[in-house]
Design goal:
The structure is a single chain. By secondary structure, the protein is α/β, with parallel strands linked by helices. It has a single domain, classed as Rossmann fold (3-Layer(aba) Sandwich), CATH 3.40.50. Helices cover 41% and strands 20% of the residues. It is built from seven helices and seven strands. The strands form two sheets. It has a five-stranded parallel sheet with strand order 2-5-6-1-7, sandwiched between helices. Strands 3-4 form a two-stranded antiparallel ribbon. Helix 3 packs across helix 4. It is globular, with a radius of gyration of 16 Å. It starts with a strand and ends with a strand.
Length: 173
């Protein structure tokens, strides 16, 4: 996992180029305008390419049924049929679990890029990093890149009271 902060220039282009170099599927979502974690999940799903193979599409949907993520195929795109009783953290966690399960079953590289991840504290509260760690720590087939224009986000990696203490590599641009 990486946290990339920037002083100038564009960091998303650097992360996108890195994912492309290692032939990784990239799903990117910007958290700046999100008000709830439930808004993030459909944005991630919209970036997943629907396979041309019917068998592979069916396998993706079957994995979705097994991970409880309410994922359907409509109009050539994966969509989320959200149960209004579920909270945003549950929905996003299920979509990330689905992405991990499919990447694992297909032995494919997948990168989830969360842009302006510092907004997680605004959306989820001051313990947003702990929620994210709990959600992502068992995903062995997903790579995570956290982007932020705020230097204070580096505290996630160096503060022993934070969820990602000692687990992130910091890069500055």
């Amino acid at each position: 996992m990486l946290i990339i902060t920037r002083h100038q220039g564009t960091y998303r282009n650097a992360a996108t180029a890195a994912a492309h170099r290692v032939h990784s599927t990239l799903a990117c979502v910007d958290l700046r305008n999100a008000n709830d974690l439930a808004e993030i999940a459909p944005k991630l799903l919209a970036q997943i390419t629907v396979p041309k193979s019917l068998l592979k599409r069916e396998r993706m949907l079957a994995i979705g049924r097994n991970t409880l993520a309410p994922i359907e195929l409509a109009g050539g795109s994966f969509i989320l049929s959200v149960d209004s009783k579920q909270d945003g953290a549950t929905i996003l966690g299920q979509v990330l679990d689905w992405m991990n399960s499919f990447a694992e079953s297909e032995e494919m590289k997948t990168t989830v890029l969360l842009q302006e991840v510092d907004q997680l504290e605004r959306i989820w509260g001051p313990r947003g990093d702990w929620w994210l760690r709990g959600t992502t720590q068992f995903h062995r087939s997903l790579n995570y890149v956290f982007l932020s224009s705020k230097k204070r986000l580096g505290n996630w990696a160096i503060d022993p009271r934070r969820g990602f203490f000692g687990q992130l590599e910091l890069l500055s641009f």
